[in-house]
C-alpha cells in the first residue's frame, strides 16, 4: 500500500445529490445533500436501513455513478473529473452473490482482476497467491467458485477488492447473507485490513457490526445524513432508550403506568407490554417493582435500528426548529 | 501487452467452461455443406470459393459478436460489469483483448470447411495463393476484434445485446459481400459496403483460392487492418461516451 500523505482526507463529499429520473411520474431522490468526511486510516461506517442511500453513495465513490449535484473527492482527487486517478487507489466490494465469475476458479478470478488493475503477469501471479493464503482460500484455489460456500465467496470478493493493495476500501454490506460464523470471520478479516492503516468505508445496516469495526459512523436515512457519531455515542443513545418487556395482568400494568418514571406502556404483538421509561437509571427501579409484584416473565430490550433512526431524525428536527 | 495476454487467457478459460461459446464450430460445417450443395446444384464449379469463404467469415463475425455481447451482457448479469468499469483498465481495450482469443479460435472453421469439402463433396480446394490466404485470414481476425469493440459500445448502451447480435449480423454480412460479391449488389450499396472490412476480406480470400494473380494483395490487407483499426478507435471513443452516459443515468449494472 502506498504511503499516506499529509492530513488530507481520504473521502469527502459536499452536498452530494443523486436523482434517478423515471420514464413516467416523479423521479427518485436517492441522496439529498450528503456531506461526509473520512480521515485517512479511519474505519467509517455508513449505517442505514435498506433504501437509505448507502449503496448509491458507495457507487458514486467507486466512480460507477455520477452525482446529480454536489461534489466529492477521494484522496484529494475530484470524483467527477479525476476518476481515472481515483480508480487505482480504490478497492471495491459489493455485497451479495454477484461480482465474481462463478465458473472459474478463485485463482483464475484473482489473476484476471490483477491484470485489470495494471499488475504485470508475474506481479499478478504472486499477488494472487498471497491473497489466496491471506483469505484462507489456498486449499480450494483451483476449484470453481460456484462450488464455494457463501462465506468463501465473500472472502473471495474481499480478496478481489484487495488485489491492488488499495488505500481506500469500499465495502457495501459485505456480511449480507452470511451465517453468523462466516460473518464473524469476515469481520475479523476486515478488522485486520483496517489495522494495516488503510481507510475503510463500510456500508451496513448492522449496528453491532458498525460498533465492532468502525471509528465513526454516519447514519443515513432517506438519502440524508441523520447523524455522524462515534459508535460509543450511538451505544449510549441506545442504552438511554432501553425498555422493559413484561407479561403481566392488566391491573399490574395500570400500576406500572402510574409510576412516575414510566413514560409509556404499549401493547406488543405477542400480547406482552412494552414499558418505556424516562431514564436509564429508572429501568432498575421499574424492574424491581414488577419483580416484587411476582412477575417472572420480564426482560429489558434495546430499540431496533429503525427506532433509533426515528429518534435521531426527531432530534434533528427539534434542533432545526430551535435553530430557526 | 500484459492485459492482452491476461484477458486472452481469461477468455480462453471462460470458453472452456462455456462450451456454448463454440456453437459456431458446430454450425459452420453444416453451413458449409449447404453452400457447397447450392454450388453443386447451380452447375457452376467456379463458385466453390464462395461456398468455402462465406461460412468461415460468418463464423469469425458471429463468434466475435457473441463474445463482445457476452463481455457486456454476461458481466452485467454477474455483477462484474460495474467492477470492471470501476477498475483502472480501459474498457474498450479490455473488450478487444478478450475477443481476440475467440476470433483466433474461429479460424479453426477454415479446417472444418475444407474437411467438409473434401470428405462430404469430394472436392479438394485448391489454394493458389496460400500466403495471401493466411495473411488475409489473420488480418480479418484482427479487424473483427476491432469491430467487436465498436459493437460493445452499442451493447452497453442498449442493455439488449442479444437482440442486436441477432439482428445486426445479416445486414453486415450481406453488405460485407460475404454471400455474394459486393459488385453484384445494387450500386448504391457499394460505398457503404466498402466501409465494412468484410467486403475486402471476402474478395481477398476468394481471390486467394483462384488461379489468377491477386492484384494489390498487400494494399488490400492494409485496408482490412486499417478499417479494423478505425472501428477499434471509433469503438473506444463511442464506448467512452456510452460509459459516461450510463454513469450519468445509473444504468451500468442494470439488467
From TrEMBL, chain A:
Domain of life (superkingdom): Bacteria
SUPFAM superfamilies assigned to the protein according to its UniProt record, in alphabetical order:
P-loop containing nucleoside triphosphate hydrolases
Report the residue ranges that make up the ABC transporter domain in this protein.
11-247
Q: Which InterPro entries match?
A: AAA+_ATPase, ABC_transporter-like_ATP-bd, ABC_transporter_ATP-binding, P-loop_NTPase
What Gene Ontology molecular-function terms does this entry list?
A: ATP binding
Where is this protein found? Cell membrane
Q: Which SMART domains match?
A: AAA
Q: How does it sit in the membrane?
A: Peripheral membrane protein
Keywords in alphabetical order, please. Antibiotic resistance, ATP-binding, Nucleotide-binding, Transport
Does Protein biosynthesis appear among the keywords?
Answer: no
Q: Which CDD domains match?
A: ABC_DR_subfamily_A
Q: What is this protein called?
A: ABC transporter ATP-binding protein
Q: Which organism is it from?
A: Streptacidiphilus cavernicola
UniProtKB/TrEMBL annotation, chain B:
Residue ranges constituting the ABC-2 type transporter transmembrane domain according to the UniProt record:
26-208
Q: Say if the entry is tagged with keyword Transmembrane helix.
A: yes
Q: Which domain of life is it from?
A: Bacteria
| Membrane-crossing segments per the record | 21-41, 47-67, 99-124, 130-156, 168-187, 217-239
Subcellular location(s) per record: Membrane
- Fetch the Pfam families from UniProt: ABC2_membrane
Indicate whether Lipoprotein appears among the record's keywords: no
Q: What does the UniProt keyword field contain?
A: Membrane, Transmembrane, Transmembrane helix
Q: How does it sit in the membrane?
A: Multi-pass membrane protein
Q: What is this protein called?
A: ABC transporter permease
Q: What is the lineage of its organism?
A: Bacteria, Bacillati, Actinomycetota, Actinomycetes, Kitasatosporales
